[in-house]
Amino acid sequence: MQSDDRGLHETGLTLPRALLFDWHGTLVDTHDAMFSAMEEMLPQLEDLGLVDQLLPEEQCNTPEDARLVRYIRIFRRLHPRILAERRVSRTDIFNAIFGDNRDAKSIAHHAYNQCYRQYFGQVKPFQEGVQAYMEACRKLGIKLVVATNRNREFLDTELATLEEGRWRDLFDATVCADDVVHYKPDPEMIYSAAQKLGMPVGKDIWYVGDGYTDMVTANNAGVTPIFYNGAAWETERIAGWFRRQDRPARVLESFESLMDELAAFPGDTFACEVADVRPPAYPPPQPPERRVEPDWHPAVAKLIRPQVILFDWHATLVDTLDAMYHAVDDMLPEFHALGLMGRMLEPEDSKTPEDAKLVAYVREFARLHPKVRADRKISRTDIFEVLFGEDQDAKDIAHAAFNRHYRNHYGTVDAFEPKVSDMLASLRNLGIRVGVITNRDREFFEHELAAVEGTGWRHLFDTEVCGDDTPLRKPHPDQLILAAEKLDYPVGPSIWYVGDSTTDIIAAKRAGVTGVFFNGALWDLPWLHSIFPGTHGHPHKPDVVVNDFSEFWALVLACEVGPP
Description:
This protein is of the alpha/beta class. It is built from 24 helices and 16 strands.
């Protein structure tokens, strides 16, 4: 007769009669296909009616989730850090940005599946030796199940092709998203797996997964949650994700760690000894390469304390990207009639290879390159600078055409970040004068200024200079110089100009003021070096780069040296 403690781990875990595994990010790596599908799906959020369903930032679980929501709301793509690290699943992404909104998540998952259909099949074991570890568990008498938010169409194909189909007989059951009504973190998937095994739901079922959602799902179902840290998250980050009721019972760094946990049970627990079936130790997964942050960092910048801070408008203080790109899309087909096709730069005269591709594409198709449209990272002013260079007359014609089409779309304007208006008011409370410099015509700017946040921001600025207030727009310095004249303040480094584009920084440096690049689009260091090369032909570089207004506020407070 078995002793009462035969099913207890030496540190309290319950003997597993079944191991349920998440698929992507746990057993297999399908990152290439997943991220390709996500990058195709996210630009559809507006058409899917999901932009308004994004969680308010104050309701997000973590500051990282709030930044992700903000980034997707504005740019309709994944945060560059997520793309670089490749450590989170689409399920965790949808749960982060839609919260408990099942309808929104269902629409998002369906759209994702439509995109994933073009990419799936790109699958490999997440770490070396997974098949051997699964075979060892089967020999121990443990039932094995895959429980995944994958559709069966995709899982069955990936199982059939993975390592020449040798995984198909590893599992006693599989449960997919289309086998149940609700996606994880609803526990229905766990219940379905237990039913297929003919087992009651309990702690003797372990659910092994790599995501926050997996652990919430396991706890919701009442099974043992085991976190597989194949993505090599830092211990403190994992601990910071979970509320007490959602925490994992164990964190495994590899499948070798899973064998260690099983070996800690008494020797006669399983059908055979763990040591007799355990495969040779395979190395754990390698952590992802760290994202390189910009070296123009506020912590090292030595700047003169500002007495005047001038801000760009679009994509710095406010988000008007939808209207802007709609207007650009409408105007580009008119380039032939406007006589602008022949006035564009030759691609070989462009500053960067990316600029050359844009010029060549507009020349051939009279529309924006799809990558520019998807990235949503550059302004119409930068687009015109790339296309026409120093041809001021061509740029004037382009701006006039843009304005005609912008009238059909403008009106919706949101703060680029929460609490932007609080930050502007706080700057004024410090005695700093605040202004706006924008290439917007005054007709549009005045309307947007009055409409933002429902009440308008007129009271927050000491001066505004629009694109039609001076003969020459940015990147010429005229607008910045006019703003200084209006404030009766001498042009110099104690005037800061904050903007999100190369055009803004060129205007700042030509005017002789401090150039603060607002990296709301989160360009990485190699890209920043490419758009600010510091060459003889393109010498202008920012004095500092900030990624958000919390960094900017800290930068302002840190400046100790006043103007000369």
